[in-house]
Design brief:
Blueprint lengths: L4 E2 L16 E8 L8 E7 L7 E8 L4 E8 L3 E9 L5 E10 L2 E5 L14 E2 L3 H10 L12 H17 L5 H11 L11 H6 L4 H4 L2 H19 L10 E4 L4 E3 L8 E6 L4 H17 L5 E6 L4 H11 L4 E4 L8 H5 L4 E2 L1 E5 L5 E3 L6 H11 L1
Parallel strand pairs: 2-8, 12-13, 13-14
Antiparallel strand pairs: 1-15, 2-5, 3-4, 3-6, 6-7, 8-9, 10-11, 10-14, 12-16, 16-17
Helix pairs in contact: 2-3, 3-6
Length: 367
């Protein structure tokens, strides 16, 4: 039996780009004395995420204050505010819900707090009120006998319940999307994000993000059925290791294995030689392998291909594992994971704990 690497945070599908026009914002802050000359950086995320950087805005503290003006692509974006002292050490940081309007940051003069922005708030902002309430949720302790995955799931349920109390706020929809897209809503027990979404105002549900939320969560719910044996394999287009587009439609008439792996996944690397040997044994009979790299370290990935002589089809979305849209499409939760497809494009097997002997047995059946 192969050892597998299981994600503690399930898959998140990548968000779609937006067609919003540039919307102006202003962020002003009055800071405690003694911070003049410190550098300020506002990091704004985009594409409905909490990790894809859209823009960075710099400023310098003068007269115990600073002002940042700019534009964002949505009515509201998630952002992080960082302040560095003269030694370039981080002296303050906080998350904010940056709205396309005047955002007034209030920083209490609390020298006992190491992070000078720990208690900072955006005044008169319902979005940041929600954000602050969520930040107050106590996170689970860590330890060998603690189920951290369950702990974080419980936190997410608490977060979602907080969002349910604000059904008219755009931030509620944005935060719900971030939470839901990090998880696989594939059964009734995990339908909380979808049920809360249906309680949001009609305006939120019909917004661009609302439509994306509904489309992607519905697609995730269907991923189990669509990726099961007997189903026609979902097609996808992705970049290969040379930067060229690859589409699975080009494999029509050939049996192939889709392998999901990652450069940081120890079990994946341990099993790689066995899979490579299987490929070399049967490639003369038409077997193809599409080896999917599940991380965004392109240099490490390309070096691995060269050093291990991986002469099959190497592809990657070039995104962190938890944001892979294609892995979500195939209901992939653990690594390595292999999906065998026959010459007609039908999935023959998609067994999460399949051993090497069974993989070869299934492979011989489709040649």
């Amino acid at each position: 039996m192969r050892h597998r690497f299981y994600l503690t945070i399930p898959i998140l599908c990548a968000a779609l780009s937006s067609a919003f026009a540039q919307l102006p914002f202003t962020l002003t802050a009055q800071l405690p004395k003694g911070m003049n000359g410190q550098k300020v950086y506002l990091v704004v995320y985009g594409d409905y995420t909490d990790h894809i950087i859209e823009k960075k805005f710099p400023a310098v503290v003068q007269n115990d204050q600073f002002t940042i003006k700019g534009a964002i692509n949505k009515p509201l974006e998630l952002a992080v505010l960082n302040i560095f002292n003269q030694d370039d050490r981080l002296s303050g940081h906080t998350t904010v819900a940056l709205e396309a309007k005047n955002n007034r940051l209030v920083v209490p003069d609390n020298t006992a707090v190491k992070n000078i922005l720990a208690d900072a708030v955006i005044a008169d902002s319902k979005a940041n009120e929600i954000n602050h309430t969520i930040d107050l949720i106590e996170h689970p302790a860590k330890g060998p006998n603690i189920d951290s995955d369950k702990g974080y799931r419980d936190i997410e349920k608490q977060e979602i319940n907080i969002l349910a109390a604000y059904p008219n706020e755009y931030y509620s929809l944005l935060k719900l999307y971030v939470i839901a897209s990090k998880n696989d809503i594939i059964n009734e027990a995990e339908d909380l994000p979808l049920s809360v979404f249906k309680t949001f105002s009609p305006a939120l549900q019909s917004s661009e993000l609302g439509k994306i939320f509904l489309e992607e969560t519905t697609a995730t719910r269907n991923s189990v059925r669509l990726s099961s044996p007997g189903s026609q394999v979902p097609q996808f287009t992705v970049l290969d290791d040379r930067g060229k587009l690859f589409n699975t439609a080009s494999l029509k008439g050939s049996p192939y294995i889709i392998g999901f792996s990652a450069t940081w996944c120890v079990p994946c690397q341990a099993h790689q030689p066995t899979l490579l040997a299987l490929y070399h044994k049967y490639r003369s009979k038409g077997l193809k392998i599409v080896y999917f790299n599940m991380d965004n370290d392109v240099v490490k990935w390309q070096n691995l291909i060269k050093n291990k002589k991986l002469d099959w089809i190497n592809v990657s979305e070039r995104t962190p594992v938890s944001y892979s849209k294609i892995a979500k499409q195939f209901n992939v939760h653990s690594y390595p994971d292999y999906i065998l497809v026959d010459k007609t494009g039908k999935i023959v097997c998609n067994e999460k704990d399949m051993n090497d002997a069974r993989l070869e047995e299934y492979t011989k059946q489709v040649l």
